Amino acid sequence: MGITFRKETFRDDFTFKNSPEHIRRFPFPFHEDAYMYAVNIEPHVVGTKGSVLENLIDVDEHYVAEMQDRALVLAEDPLRCQSLPHMTLAGWDLLELLMEQQALGYPEHFTLTRNGDRWRWINRPLGIDDTFTFGDTSTLPYGPMEYITRQSQGDFCILDQRDGNLWMDAGMVTTQADWSLDFDIGMNFFEWHAPVPLAHEKGIFTRALKFLTNIQQGKPARRLNWTMTINPRLDTSPENYHKWGPDRTTVTPENVGDKVHLRVELQSFWRLPRSNGIVFPIRCYLIKMDELVTQPKWARRLHRVIRDLPDELATYKGLTRFRPTLVEWLSKLDDGSATSPGFGPD
Amino acid sequence: MSTGTTKLDVVVSDVVPVNDLVTRFHFRRRDGELLPTFSGGAHVVVEMRDGERTRLNPYSLMGSPLDTREYTISVRRDDVGRGGSLFMHRSVKPGLEMVISYPVNLFSLDLRAKKHLMLAGGIGITPFMAQTAQLAGEGGNFELHYTCRTASLGTYADVLRERYDRRIRLYHDDREERIELDRLLSTQPLGTHLYVCGPAGMINWVRDRAASLGWPSEAVHFEHFAAPQPGLPFDVTLAVSGKTIRVGEQQSLLEAIEAAGVDPPYLCRGGVCGQCETNVISHDGKFIHNDHWLSEEEHRSGCKIMPCVSRFEGRSLVLER
Fold it and tell me: Is Cell membrane there in the keyword field (chain B) (predicted)?
């Protein structure tokens, strides 16, 4: 019973790996042999058993290692976690949501007991057993958002909703694909999406904002996003660009399979009940090419997607430097046969 | 309807007359669990099974968000309205099983505010009952000015006075007491947010004065208690579902669409949230828009309609539903 948590690293010696079961549950993001932006938002409901959607907040074999990596990032740079003063209530909302969902999905690892405002939280994988008063920040070692997101996989942006817009006013962001909470904090939806090419012209952000501001309590939504990362690095922040940026020049035909990782973000959107804010968990999944191509359908399809990606998108996603090497390597695994519909492996 | 809101199965746990016009209804969950947490200013949509007809009316939650064992709403009886409030007053008794939506908040507090200045008119007091409870629990700074026709129709004025004392100011129309709005608005500390809920005339008055006195629109929040207005019956063709329907005098376009078995999304049913926005494919006649969602330009263009509150007078109307 329970998850066997891996001992692994996302830096230095890069021992991160997916077990064979985890390769098959990887949220492969391409449902056809091409990729273009779409407002690909759907209701966030429980999916197939064994998939990353088995629970609405997913905990997997990388949990303990990811939380250790997060602690290292925060020790070096506390600004990865920020909350403007009016967002404390939303932090309590998030604490409740994550404790509830983790305890519900993984009772062997997490237990939440409430006695009025007196709550007890047991997190066995991290060896935590704390009793605190819900709503009283002085009874926790950190603010409520920081406390719970140091114990939850993925990044978290908490958005305040006002004036018909969403404002990024709090967050815990340590596993991001080249953007910075410290830069974006206090920005509204259009401001923090300003660098994204092509999508503004298509009116995608206007439609997406309309959808998001209407997200309701009890009806979360989700979408997938993706990019690629060299080496299994969780922290690919602008602050640490000097560490991971040069990695892109190290891809060779010999090491593609080991170095190049598909990075998929499962983003979900939840209305928070007390603050009326929206929380936007961004859960990052990594898989190296050698692991991904164990599923022949994914190998064929990824080859076609990366080969045909518009240049602007390839540039925005930072693939330019190693794309030819990757496409060449993947082409050998593409026999030209048709891929079956849907995301899953055959 | 399922596309709009998530539902809660509740039982009416109490019905309490408050004064000549207003009755309070208490709901608990049928399964005995706690109701979902909400934030001050939220409403629920109450489904009323009135014979053949299903009525759906939004009402503000007025209990404390800190206690979700029950939800409470207050309903003002409208003898010349479309019948929802009369149904609540006449037919809803303790023990009745009902269905309500999850809470939705279209009138939420701006938690950045240094001070919350609240203006209520009549039954517009209800969202402030929850907001003041929420703010008082957090030690928030607020002040509420409440205007009503007579002392006996000052719904919950006594409760508020007892709870919050000098933070509540009452004004009675029959004593010709009137909010000194300009003085009030021009003497607030920087960082104050203004909230107003009440009749349309009051909301317009407060918004206009606030704008003239230099209040930024981001600091002025309002909630209309806009029920759909009755009007002449009209016919509509729904292009996607291939139905032609008649909208009755007392029925809203949204209700008629729902009665025809089409399930459009909605949230507020009062013309403010934008959820039920529908494209007009063709029309020959005049729109009576009534909503606060579409821009003036969109109203003039005749390309969009908000079926929850808007009506039509003319020969033909085809909608994309």
Answer: no
Residues B131 and B99 in one domain: no
Q: Looking at CA atoms only, how far is residue A85 from chain B in angstroms? A: 8
The ipTM value here is 0.85
Is A223 labeled as catalytic in the residue annotation?
A: yes
Q: What is the largest CA-CA distance in chain B?
A: 59
Q: Which of A84, A161, A162, A167 to mutate to test the interface with B (most CBs of B within 10 A)?
A: A162
A24, A162, A223, A321: the catalytic one is A223
User: Nearest CB to B104: which of A93, A216, A275?
Assistant: A216
Cα dihedral across residues A100, A106, A110, A114: positive or negative: positive
pLDDT, position B178? 95
On whether residue B229 sits in a domain, the answer given is no
Task: Please tell me which of the candidates B6, B42, B218 has its beta carbon nearest to residue A219.
Answer: B6
In eight-state DSSP terms, residue A219 is B
Q: B218 to chain A nearest CA, in Å?
A: 6
In a domain, B179, yes or no: yes
| Mutation for B interface: A274, A278, A279, most B CBs within 10 A | A274
Task: Tell whether B155 and B84 lie within a shared domain.
Answer: no
Contact between A217 and B267 using a beta-carbon 8 Å cutoff: no
Interval A94-137: pLDDT, tens: 999 999 999 999 999 999 999 989 999 999 999 999 999 999 99
DSSP A155-207: EEEEEEEETTEEEEEEEE-SS-BS--HHHHTT-BHHHHTTT-TTTTTTTHHHH
Kindly calculate the radius of gyration of chain A based on its CA atoms and give it in whole angstroms: 20
B171 inside domain: yes
pLDDT tens-place string over residues A10-33: 999 999 999 999 999 999 999 989
| The two structure tokens encoding residue B175 | 């004593």
pLDDT tier at A39, thresholds 50, 70, 90: low
What angle, rounded to 10 degrees, do the helices at B157-164 and B126-137 form?
A: 10
Q: Which of B162, B191, B224 is the last residue of a domain?
A: B224
Structure confidence at residue A208 (pLDDT)? 84
Return the number of other C-beta atoms located less than 10 Å from residue B103's C-beta: 30
Chain CA centroid to CA A173, Å: 10
Distance from CA of A271 to the nearest CA of B (A): 10
| CATH at residue B242 | 3.10.20.30
Task: Considering only the beta carbons, identify the residue of A161, A163, A273 that sits closest to B36.
Answer: A273
Integer-rounded Cα radius of gyration of chain B = 20
Question: pLDDT over 90 for what percent of chain A?
Answer: 83
Domain contains B2 = no
Helix (H) or strand (E) holding A145: helix A144-149
- Give SS3 for A51: coil
Q: What is the mean pLDDT of chain B?
A: 93
The number of CA neighbours under 13 Å toward the Cβ of B39 is 23
Domain count, chain B: 3
Band of pLDDT at residue B227, cut at 50, 70 and 90: confident
> Please, what's the b/e burial string for B62-79 (b: 16 or more CB within 10 A of its CB; e: otherwise)?
bbbbeebebbbbbbbeee
Placement of tokens 């706690």 in the chain:
B34
Which regions of A65-117 does DSSP assign to beta strands (E)? 81-83, 110-115
Structural domain of residue B244, as residue ranges? 234-319
pLDDT digits (tens, 9 = 90+) for A179-227: 999 999 999 999 999 887 777 766 778 888 888 998 999 999 999 999 9
Other C-beta atoms closer than 10 Å to the C-beta of A49 total: 8
